[in-house]
Amino acid sequence: MSTVDMQQRIVRYGELKPCRTAFIDAHTPGSDQKENFTIIGAGVSESADQHVHISDTPGFNIGAAGQPPRCRNSLHTHTTAEVFFVLSGKWRFFWGPTGDTGEVTLEEGDLINIPTHMFRGFENIGTDYGMIMAVLGGDDAGGGVVWAPQVIEEASQHGLVLGDNGVLYDTKLGQSLPEGIQPQPVLSASEVAEFQQPDAAEVVPRFVARYWDMMAMSNKQPAKVLAIDGMLKDKPGFEIDLISRTSLDGSLYSTERHEILMAMRGHWTLRWGNEQTVLAPGDVCAVPPGVEHSVVASMSGEASMFRVRNTDDPAGPTYWA
């Protein structure tokens, strides 16, 4: 693979292009300052304004959410995996039909695999702009998103209507639903009651991995974070490892899988062929199958990187065994 091709498969944190109209709550007070980023794949955006950095998908999508303090993402649910790790800031994740069934606070580097079929939201509770990185199951991550009824109702009060085609229409801009398109149905109370409502004592031990626990397990080998035999046991169509300074010996390797490298801390030298570049925190690189490469921490101090690979498991509901 040529130098140009590989460079085009790296999305730099400083070059990310946000969308501020991505979702139905884009005008809702308290949620109207959030920014959505689609890094790899089509993502889950409901807006035609969403910029896609790398359009092809390896069986999952990579995205991010950036929010100022006290800005929240409204309650929604997914039919496939939604996994986040905190790149910067301090975040509260909450769940349940009205968001008060349970919650957990995540610090930088922590990871959460939010169970499917459960309404969830998240809020930046830090003092500065924060960023969380996301891995979304399946090639069509936007096909399985459902909003809590109150989110749709509140959005309509601020001019936004979501069509049953998955597209947002802003009545404040004079937009209206096209012929043949109906508003997305609002779930009934009985339908909402069918969604899972586990408490924090059930969710946190099984679906949250703390950064320093992952780092402790990454000495001499990558820490297997999300996998059927990982710290968090699941098979959503991808696996996640955490790599630290001593996890790899710097040798070139290749795999038959798609491999996404997501730098968390420190600077990493990525080599392929006779070429190399440096990945900084927040940078994302999509390494295609069969490409020989290596990653080595290039500076002293703390260094960590999440590595995501596709598996043969179909994207689907959270594995509860």
Description:
By secondary structure, this protein is mainly β. It has two domains: 195 residues, Jelly Rolls, CATH 2.60.120.10; 100 residues, Jelly Rolls. 10% of the residues lie in helices and 37% in strands. The protein is built from five helices and 24 strands. The strands form five sheets. The protein has a seven-stranded mixed sheet. A hairpin with a 5-residue loop joins strand 13 and strand 14. The model has no long low-confidence stretch (mean pLDDT 93).
Q: CATH H-level name of the largest domain... which superfamily?
A: Jelly Rolls
Helix % is 10-25%
Assigned CATH architecture of the largest domain: Sandwich
DSSP strand count: 24
> Main β-sheet: number of strands, strand sense, barrel status?
7 strands, mixed
**Contiguous runs where pLDDT drops below 50 for at least 5 residues:** none
**Number of separate helices:** 5
Briefly note the structural class of the backbone.
mainly beta
CATH topology grouping of the largest domain: Jelly Rolls
CATH hierarchy, class of the largest domain: Mainly Beta
Q: How would you state the average pLDDT, rounded?
A: 93
Could you tell me the radius of gyration in angstroms? 19 Å
Strand content: 35-45%
Domain unit count: 2
Main-sheet strand order equals 1-22-19-24-18-16-17
Termini gap: 41 Å
**3D shape:** globular
What is the ordering of alpha helices and beta strands? HEEEEEEEEEEEEHEEHHEHEEEEEEEEE
